[in-house]
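## retry 2 of 3
previous attempt timed out at serialization; input unchanged, resubmitting
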Amino acid sequence: MNVVIKPFFTAFGKYIYDRGTNSILAVDDDEYNSFCRIHQKRPDAKDLELLQLFQEKGYCQENPVEQIEHPQDRFIQFHLENKIEKLTLQLTQNCNLRCSYCAYSGNKYNNRTHSNRVMSYEIMQKSIDFLMKHSTNSKKVDIGFYGGEPLLEFNKIKRLMGYIDERYPYKSITYSMTTNGTMFNDDNIEFLMDKKFDVIISLDGPKELHDHNRVFANGTGSFDKIMENLLYIRDKYPDFFRKISFNTVVAPGTDFRCVNDFFDANDIIQDNNLRMGIMNDFYVEEPIQYDDLYSINYKVQRTKLLLSALGLINKNKVSRLFIHEIPKILRMHKELSGINGLARITHPGGPCIPGARRPMIDVDGNIFPCERVSEESEIMKIGNIYSGYDLEKARVVLNPGKVTADKCKNCWNFIYCGMCAASADNTKELVEGMKLARCESAMYDTIEKLKTICLLKENNVDFDKMEELYNV
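## retry succeeded, writing output
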């Protein structure tokens, strides 16, 4: 018997997640206890009788997965040659800030350090040609500018955009940039506005908290300069200002309540899109630990989110930092019962197609799956704009489940596992132990979403109306 299920419960009900049908089954107390024993591989005769009844209805079938291989493995060459969707250019490894938690800071991460190295215009131009050659089957593409601080290379950006307009006027292109927000002036603002850039500014909350981590190279805080720039843009370029999004990183030791209160009360950016993240735990020398206060405040805000979804409090009471959780829950709700069994050869969810979804080109022209992986990693260096893709390396990155194949085949979180190759990367190879160490966190995230969906259903929430309420 090899049935892959996950029993769980809420305050009002008991359930089984059946991986084979990707569905949630409501059960009574006795059935729940039986399925717990089945899950633990110690069923008695009555448990097996119950299991047979469910199997006759099409649920809780024997695990069909025999081999771990990504469904797109055989098509990866086609994707890389024809379907790039987004390209990120690492224009510079330098920055005018020295943020304590930055991947380039050298404080916590072992993969990058700031340097004066920049991307030559030749490599920028060649990267665009590479993108256009390899995106013939993509209706539109996005070009992202990344650093360091990309506005340090603004003159090259302007020159490159002229080349793109002249050489590729037929291609539908959007542009994006992540910036620290300290280097705006009329020249670059008007240019970014004219080219309809999507701009993301890093802003970590009130002055005291922001300036604790995000400082200039001389050690002074950057908050005042950012707010000065934002006020100027809001007053002189209101249309452009409305399109700006903000990203806040909640670092260990940060008082989450202060961050939340700042964004809820700040009338300058109250209508702008906002998203929250925690520190990336890839390539760290020591595990990143968040304290109990963060966990408590996180749970309080998540509770408010649920109360809002249940119609018990107004959605305006929900932290803007948590609204992005709603689309994730709604997406999972739609996906449940969306498949009819797993294939014999398949792969856990998580990895995108490396080199096609959002590749990054570093200052030397090397190709990496995205900007979150280490440029010091040999396994993540999946090609070069001059020599093209290394298909064998791309296949390794596409198939991180192979290093944990025996565990993955029988894991209940197979479909919703969000781990990619970076979770197992020690910069030389993909390591089983590194990936397995992150499994518990991935499972916790999935089970919380499943519980949330059940809680909403228990209270007769209309998911279609929920989509309308949150503009999903």
